[in-house]
Amino acid sequence: MLKIRNLIALLTFWVLLTFFHSGFSQQYPIFTQYMFNGLVLNPAYTGSHESMAFTAATRSQWSDLKGAPQTEIFTVHSPIKFSRSAAGAFITLDQLGVTRQNMLYGTYAYRFPISEKGKIAIGGQLGVTYYQTNYTDLNIVTQDDNIDPVFQENNRRYLPNFGLGAYYSDGRLYIGLASPALISNKFNKDNYLELATQKRHYFLTAGYVFDLNENLKLKPNLLLKWVENGTFQYDINCNMLIKQMVWVGISYRMNDSVDALFGWNINKQLAIGYSYGYPVNALESFLTGTHELSLNYRLKRDRNIIQSPRYF
User: Fold this and answer.
1) How far is CA 241 from CA 147, 172, 188, 261, in A?
2) In this structure, what DSSP letter does residue 186 have?
């Protein structure tokens, strides 16, 4: 018989494959607060803050479960002076069990006005994902107390990719459509355990800001996600802005979670956000909640220019 530690290792491996299958089929990192950091999903969002903007966010999913997803992201983007162009970049660090994906991408958008306030942007991104699977961390051995040869070799690969997107906004309404990774790279060409490839993801986002009264604004948001030859998922959200200062909201992600959101516009340049997600699927009795924290800072463009409030 296999020793106890082998059974534990095998069970761990099975749990990772089972619990995180949905996360692996959806290989692109997703944040609950996507509506405040569209660069995560769409390169055409680049420069939409009309000033240089920095965002940092961290997401800890199922926080009490060992090997659960952990994601960090840092983005920066800005319009380019005296042009219709904008440029940016982002870094993501994504860990799931023994698998890590680190992404580094540059983004560009060309924006042109179609009305007094409305702009359409066409954008693209280009970069690389460093993919790493540490099979040896599973410590799976055979009956002879030898390390199983299938798990003796770790996998490391650089996966170049590019994406395209379009984005419209006018200060009240936004609509975006993007596919941030268009090349179907193979994660591992040699190991039969990893037959998966990078799947094309398609994201459609939309939102609108309604004035309820002088002090209250309501902003519903919608995110539709489709993985090629895979799954479809929707994310519906509704946020309320109180006195241009405090955001409170709730989200539902299809077959995944219900999330409560809170945000604070400390001033016109600095904002923080927090969300807590409770799982609502067949595994909810085994899983704990998901915590997400974000920080956004916008540089002032000019002392004589009054920065308008950002709704997305």
Assistant:
1) 56, 13, 46, 11
2) B
Bridge partners, 92 (sequence order): 73, 103
Predicted confidence (pLDDT) per residue in 219-228, tens digit: 999 999 999 8
Q: Which residues contact 10 (CB under 8 A, 6 or more apart)?
A: 2, 140
Q: Which residues pair with 292 in a beta bridge?
A: 59, 275
Fill in the amino acid letter for 89: A
Could you tell me where the beta strands, DSSP code E, fall in 244-287?
246-253, 257-265, 270-279
Backbone angles phi, psi at 42, to 5 degrees: -145, 115
111, 93 contact by CB (below 8 A):
no
Contacts of 126 (CB under 8 A, 6+ apart): 105, 106, 161, 162
Contact call for residues 67 and 9 (beta carbons, < 8 A): no
> For residue 208, what is the DSSP state?
E
Q: What is the pLDDT of residues 19-61, one digit of tens each?
A: 344 444 456 788 999 999 999 899 999 999 989 999 999 999 8
Cα distance between residue 140 and residue 136, in whole Å: 8
Given CA atoms 31, 20, 72, 259 in this order, what sign does their dihedral have?
A: positive
The SS3 call for residue 6 is helix
Domains of the chain, CATH where assigned? 4-298 (2.40.160.40)
Angle at 227 between CA 225 and CA 231, to 5 degrees: 85
DSSP 128-142: EEEEEE-GGGG--B-
Whole-model pTM: value is 0.85
